[in-house]
Specification:
single chain, alpha+beta, Arc Repressor Mutant, subunit A, Dna Ligase, domain 1, 3-stranded mixed sheet, 6 helices, 5 strands, globular, binds zinc ion
């Protein structure tokens, strides 16, 4: 299992002198989850009840600019996470679990493709979809599958 833990919000708050709102957002994301702005809003309001969703969006933009938060657009909703390193995603199509995967070889592949087309400023994001072991197990224990 690849480590998908989030960042240490307390440590980053000290290092970047984060405001209360920025720190509260990082704390909401500390467990390594990929959350929508709405879910972050709910979590942050537990600590800062007056915070609006608009403030959450603005603060997320700032945290992205600093490089403390990354956004992952999947299934129509942008999901935010507190992650410092470039990574890719493994997504379960059944339960929507999102796992971070490093996959450093993707960068080399993207660069090679881009060079063939004379592209610069290359970036690439890999999304691997499938069914996680837990969901596959549930399917096996349920109705029998047809065919082989
Ligand atoms: Zn699953
Ligand atoms: Zn991620």
């Amino acid at each position: 299992m690849i480590d998908s833990k989030g960042v240490d919000a307390g440590l980053l708050q000290t290092r970047y002198r984060l405001t209360k709102q920025r720190a509260a957002i990082l704390r909401a994301l500390e467990d390594g989850a990929h959350l929508t702005a709405e879910t972050i809003h709910e979590r942050v309001r537990a600590a800062l009840p007056a915070v609006s969703l608009g403030t959450i969006y603005r603060t997320l933009d700032i945290l992205r600019a600093i490089g403390l938060v990354q956004v992952f657009a999947h299934g129509g909703a942008a999901r935010y996470e507190a992650a410092l390193d470039k990574h890719h995603h493994l997504v379960c199509a059944s339960c929507s679990e999102i796992v971070n995967i490093p996959a450093p070889q993707i960068a080399a592949l993207a660069l090679s493709i881009a060079q063939d087309h004379r592209y610069s400023g290359v970036d690439a994001a890999l999304v691997v979809t499938g069914r996680c072991a837990r969901c596959a197990g549930l399917a096996r224990n349920g109705a029998s599958t047809t065919g082989g």
